[in-house]
Amino acid sequence: MEVYTGRGRCRNLTAKQGDRPQKAVWDWEAPLAIATISTASESRPATGEPDVRFRGVSKRFGPVVAVDNVAFEIPRGAFHSFLGPSGCGKTTTLRLIAGFEQPTDGVIEIGGASVVGVPAYQRPVNMVFQHYALFPHLDVFANIAYGLRQRRPQPARAAIERSVGEALELVRLPGMGKRRIWELSGGQQQRVALARALINHPTVLLLDEPLAALDRKLRRDMQIELQNLQREVGITFILVTHDQEEALSMSDTIGIMRDGRIVQMGSPTELYDAPVNRYVADFVGESNFFAGRILQHDLAGASLKTDKDVTLAAPLSRKGEPLTGKDRAVIAVRPEMIELWDLGDQTEFSIETTELGTVLVRAPKASRAGSGAFAPGSEVGLGWRRQGALALVDA
Ligand SMILES: Nc1ncnc2c1ncn2[C@@H]1O[C@H](COP(=O)(O)OP(=O)(O)OP(=O)(O)O)[C@@H](O)[C@H]1O
Ligand SMILES: [Mg+2]
After folding, report:
1. Residue 151 neighbours by CB distance under 10 Å
2. Which residue has the CA at smallest separation from atom 26 of ligand 1?
3. Protein residue with least CA distance to atom 30, ligand 1
4. Total-model pTM
5. Which CATH homologous superfamily contains domain 42-271?
6. Contact indicator for 265, 253 with CB cutoff of 8 Å
7. Is the pLDDT of residue 75 over 70?
8. Where are the domains of the chain?
9. Would you state the pLDDT for residue 8?
10. For residue 65, which ligand has an atom nearest its CA?
């Protein structure tokens, strides 16, 4: 069977705006950031080693397994995100890299060398916390200078002033050193936290949900700003988020986490186009899932029969877990892969069908469906091509 076709009734109709920010808009005039901070990565010799490597790392808190036998590598200079639901072990993973926690099992390497037993303050790593934790009793300058003033021997005053000035330029807060923390907006406080973390030239910057407290608009602006900053300073950024849109729009690579494990690691495109199972397909973007009993599967694809006796077929995901030994599977269809007829930039439809339940469809504005030809309540035909679907392990 090459195509599924059927009929359904439009339940609702919502115009969906394109959801990628086109450009950063700031609420004050500031010159473009100038990359004046010389970074640790510039002076580091190229070793060919990844910046961060986990080998069989677990972290248990009593009976709770927060990180469960995890292995991964993050190359130097990458923008990597860990994405997953609350409690899946994201913060614990960052704290292990930072050295605030020690693994129960396994080895963590930074720049090719094991850091097991190395205390946090001796690691070439800095962390921006889930709640940015600025010192409220210190002004902006003193907050940013904190890391430098902790060094022994302490750098000369003029050197500290120069470094803080450069850091303020980098995060586009020039001349704001005298401000008190409470006189700053949420986004400005966020940038002070970034400047404070960057001042010691870490090899790896760890960011734990750094944008969670910001409103949607400011969060989008800061996402672009963070990406620009990462390109300018060229150090490895490891970001933790449970916001899939944030991870997808910012990262070179993403690790999808579940119950202390990494389910899949790859580029945003790879995770979207070739999920290992239903969990990843559901976490990255949106999909319709049709579950059923496996009728047949081979290298070319799989077919299954739903509980309402509809036979559906789809190719396998390139990275899919094998279906062998499973009775049931799901067919996943992205909303933009489904065509509507007699019915149309991103208009979303929710179509009630008798055979497959509710199906989510996204149609381009240029199409007839997107132009508003289909009113709620109208009967429509819908279908998709076999190549527009994936057969997945229902895990
Ligand atoms: N110090 C601790 N003692 C006991 N259990 C802990 C400790 N820290 C974390 N945990 C547990 O480990 C698991 C993972 O926690 P973690 O903070 O890494 O989750 P997370 O993915 O960052 O979640 P969130 O998105 O809510 O911040 C949770 O079950 C949590 O309760
Ligand atoms: Mg957390």
Report:
1. 10
2. 86
3. 87
4. 0.77
5. P-loop containing nucleotide triphosphate hydrolases (3.40.50.300)
6. yes
7. yes
8. 3-37+274-392, 42-271
9. 79
10. 1
pLDDT digits (tens, 9 = 90+) for 91-118: 999 999 999 999 999 999 999 999 988 9
CA of 358 to the centre of ligand 1 (A): 35
Q: Could you give phi then psi for residue 23, rounded to 5 degrees?
A: -155, 160
To the nearest 10°, report the CA torsion of 262, 263, 266, 269. -140
Query: pLDDT tens, 191-243?
Result: 898 889 888 888 899 999 888 777 787 788 778 888 888 888 888 999 999 88
Give the pair of three-digit tokens for residue 116.
């097991």
Pocket of ligand 1 (CB under 6 A): 61, 64, 66, 84, 86-92, 242
CB-based contacts of 369: which residues, under 8 Å, 6+ apart? 340, 341, 343, 344, 347, 349, 361, 363
| SS3 readout for the chain | CCEEEEEEEEEEEEECCCCCCCCCCCCCCCCCCCCCCCCHHHHCCCCCCCCEEEEEEEEEECCEEEEEEEEEEECCCCEEEEECCCCCCHHHHHHHHHCCCCCCEEEEEECCEECCCCCHHHCCEEEECCCCCCCCCCEHHHHHHHHHHCCCCCCCHHHHHHHHHHHHHHCCCCCCCCCEHHHCCHHHHHHHHHHHHHCCCCCEEEEECCCCCCCHHHHHHHHHHHHHHHHHHCCEEEEEECCHHHHHHHCCEEEEEECCEEEEEECHHHHHHCCCCHHHHHHCCCCEEEEEEEEEEECCEEEEEECCCCEEEECECCCCCCCCCCCEEEEEECHHHCEEECCCCCEEEEEEECCCEEEEEEECCCCCCCCCCCCCCCEEEEEEEHHHEEEEECC
Q: What is the mean pLDDT of residues 139-167?
A: 92
